[in-house]
Design a protein that fits this description.
single chain, alpha/beta, four-stranded antiparallel β-sheet, 10 strands, globular, binds adenosine-5'-diphosphate, binds magnesium ion
């Protein structure tokens, strides 16, 4: 069974004027069908306004389809009785970790969600420890969240979601506000969740370098999925991506330019190592 399935999803925001009267509709999702399996690592790419966040909000019942359906773990997201099952299965992490902090010390913050689920306190302790271990933040368990760096805060936010034992985590541009080091640590944590814990990852990102770890990329434009495939497949289409106002990883771009200059290099190079090997052979 697919963990997440969308069929012909359409979503329109209602626009209202200053008197609250309906003034028009903005179609943000325009016919998306997709299937995501347990253990998948999906990256979603797309320019600003292409509908990525709107899609993400459909995956844990924050928004409901205008047309079409979304199923999460077999539950229809429009079914009000299933909202909590859905939110337990799919956790969300947003761009700004500050907005997701609740506790005054790290371990309280991470314990918040399982406490709300009514889990007994010994089990909560275990969950807090295991979640902080996975994101490599256990040594900070007694720290004040506001004193941590952006990357550390974001890893605490991820631990808070992890403590609910979700099947899937949707991360909406989790590294956008971070410095390179914070970004690297957050991406390392996300990869561990997928590799070690087999948690399904849906990573929305502007950073092409982060998308190479996915096993599948969806490219969005104007509320539609316009390209999909493995990172190698998608990043082989440099010009098509440019049409959607997207770039490719730096190494991929360099390899593409060298190939256009006549060197014998295959398309879709993703890492420096691959480029070096291709250059040695050419
Ligand atoms: P992305 O996350 O890819 O930047 P969004 O899903 O936020 O895109 O937005 C998709 C489209 O929907 C954009 O045109 C945006 O302006 C519009 N939109 C987003 N949120 C709202 C809202 N609350 N009301 C009206 N339009 C919205
Ligand atoms: Mg967005």
């Amino acid at each position: 069974m697919d963990l997440i399935k969308a069929k012909e999803l359409i979503f329109e925001y209602v626009r209202r004027d200053k008197n609250g009267e309906v003034d028009g509709f903005k179609r943000a999702i325009d016919g998306i069908s997709l299937s995501i399996k347990q253990g998948d690592f999906i990256a979603v790419l797309g320019a600003n306004g292409s509908g990525k966040s709107t899609l993400a909000k459909h995956l844990n019942s924050l928004l409901h389809p205008t047309e079409g359906v979304v199923f999460v773990d077999g539950n229809d997201t429009a079914d009000a009785d299933k909202v909590w099952d859905i939110r337990k299965a799919v956790g969300m992490v947003f761009q700004n970790p500050e907005n997701q902090m609740i506790g005054t010390i790290v371990e309280e913050d991470v314990a918040f969600a399982p406490e709300n689920l009514g889990i007994e306190s010994d089990r909560i302790k275990e969950r807090v420890k295991e979640s902080l271990d996975i994101v490599e933040m256990y040594e900070y368990r007694r720290s004040t969240p506001s004193k941590l760096s952006g990357g550390q805060k974001q890893r605490i936010a991820i631990a808070g979601v992890l403590a609910m034992h979700p099947k899937c985590i949707v991360l909406d541009e989790p590294t956008a506000m971070l410095d390179p080091e914070g970004r690297r640590d957050v991406i390392r944590a996300i990869r561990a969740l997928n590799d070690v814990e087999n948690i399904t990852i849906i990573l929305i990102t502007h950073n092409m370098e982060e998308a190479i770890y996915a096993n599948r990329i969806y490219v969005m434009d104007s509320g539609r999925i316009v390209m999909q495939g493995t990172p190698r497949e998608v990043f082989s289409h440099v010009e098509e991506l440019e049409q959607y106002r997207l770039s490719v990883p730096q190494v991929t771009r360099l390899a593409y330019d060298l190939r256009n200059a006549g060197l014998d290099i295959p398309p879709g190079i993703l890492t420096r190592k691959e480029l070096c090997e291709a250059l040695c052979r050419s």
